[in-house]
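Sample intake sheet
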Amino acid sequence: MRKTLKELAELVGGEIVGDAGVVITGVSGIKEARDGDITFLANPKYFPLLDKTRASAVITGRDIQSSSKPIIRTDNPSLAFVKIVTSLVPSEVNHPKGIHPTAIVGKKAALGENVAIGPYTVVEDEASVGDNSIIYAHCFIGNNAKIGEGGLIYSNVSIRERVLIGKRCIIHSGAVIGSDGFGFVTVNGKHEKIPQTGIVELGDDVEIGANVAIDRARFDKTVIGNGTKVDNLVHIAHNVIVGENSLIVAQAGISGSTVIGKNVIIAGQAGLVGHITIGDGAVLAAQAGVTKSVPSDTMVSGYPAQQHDKALRINACLQNLPRLYDTVKELKKKIEELTRGK
């Protein structure tokens, strides 16, 4: 696909600085770009590469006034780049079409219009799949589960009984939605299983990464709010509530009955204890060990997690411990020498 810089600027509502007739044939990162490529600059640490990149043009923010390269100035370079990638690079994904003859669909299952179901997928009785949904091979859709219209379910996904999936949700391979919550009571040294009778409910436009496990509630429901995105290898325990438009990054773990607000960011490998509340707009840094509730619009880090500026000071002190130890050791030696001299 070939497009001029002018055509691409019109696509993203951007302002061109430089030659509008430059022909763009590809897309790439700012370091890897070659002649004919367009790239983007959103992270300030890459500003020095603006005039060094071999790309033919660069998408930038409005704060960039000029460059040795033609640029498209936009309000959101990352979003503009996404639109241009979609325009220049055709999708090579071939989704399943129709109902594969090896798929097993219960007689009482309800399938909407233009539903596609891949090989060896099982859709049990009373389950329903909304219009224009696509389910890849080797998936399991349990009894009374419901998938909203426009869903995209990749291979080897298990959606257990009575789970509710909203509209336009994407669930990547290996995810398990509605597995039993981890509930046991210890009696005479034995761990007796507590029945998990609730459900999981995903809102609209939710995306669930590969090998994510979201447990059904003990009672009532585990909820993932509209627009929330969950990265690969995340575990969300029973009765957790996640608000709208939050981001949960890879390998994070959220213990049972924790309530997470809207627009929260939980970074990679963060761990949350149960029965706490994370306020709207909070940020939990990577590997944060969150042992108590976090107020809205607060960033925490470290273990146990504390406000980020305080955690940085504590860490700075910890880094100085070897020097402090040597200083104390030297002072102790001098005190002993002075004491002997009396």
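Comment: The chain has a mean pLDDT of 95. Helices lie at 5-12, 77-88, 308-319, 321-341.
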